[in-house]
């Protein structure tokens, strides 16, 4: 969450976040994090924001967070998984989900 706070503060200068995020992604390899794990973490973040912000979590806010998480997750996945290609990536674990759940990564 602290890192996402940094990301939110750094929105006007996303490029300065690339190197720290690449290093963060490589550290996550040593935590055993796999490429598909970013999706449920992103969804958990969205769920937490929705539960906390309630009616303030409108479509615009939701889309903004999706965009931010997508950019952060893409930078991290590209840094840590050489085979990752954002254009063709399909999450292999995202099979059994509620019909109402949208997977956006
Ligand atoms: C937007 C994506 C993510 C961000 C910004 C993020 C951020 C962080 C940060 C700042 C730390 C503190 C340690 C460090 O700086 O190396 C950390 C630790 C950790 N993260 Fe993430 N993370 C992300 C995704 C994930 C994912 C997808 C997983 C796996 C489901 C994960 C699992 C962990 C684990 C296991 C630790 C170590 C906890 C500990 O041993 O103290 N993270 N993360």
Structure description:
With 105 residues, the protein is mostly helical. It has helices at residues 2-9, 15-30, 38-53, 59-80. The longest helix is centred in the middle third of the chain and has 22 residues, at 59-80. The relative contact order is 0.17. The chain binds protoporphyrin IX containing FE (HEM). Protoporphyrin IX containing FE binds at residues 2-4, 24, 27-28, 31, 33, 37-38, 41, 72-73, 76.
Number of strands: 0
Oligomer: single chain
- In terms of per-residue confidence, which ranges show pLDDT below 50 for 5 or more consecutive residues? none
Helix content: 55-70%
Radius of gyration: 14 Å
What would the average pLDDT be, to the nearest integer? 87
How far is it from the N-terminal to the C-terminal residue, by CA?
Answer: 19 Å
- Structural class determined from secondary elements: mainly alpha
**Small molecules in complex:** protoporphyrin IX containing FE
Shape: globular
Sketch the major β-sheet: none
Helix segment count? 4
Strand content of the residues, in percent? Answer: under 5%
Order of helices and strands: HHHH
Summarize the structure.
By secondary structure, the protein is an all-alpha fold.
């Amino acid at each position: 969450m602290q890192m996402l706070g940094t990301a939110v503060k750094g929105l006007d200068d996303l490029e300065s976040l690339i190197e720290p995020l690449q290093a963060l992604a490589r550290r996550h390899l040593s935590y055993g994090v796999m490429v598909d794990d970013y999706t449920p973490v992103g969804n958990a973040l969205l769920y937490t924001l929705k539960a906390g912000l309630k009616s303030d979590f409108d479509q615009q806010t939701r889309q903004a967070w999706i965009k931010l998480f997508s950019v952060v997750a893409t930078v991290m996945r590209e840094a840590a998984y050489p085979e990752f290609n954002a254009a063709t990536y399909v999450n292999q674990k995202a099979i059994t989900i509620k019909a109402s759940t949208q997977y956006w990564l």
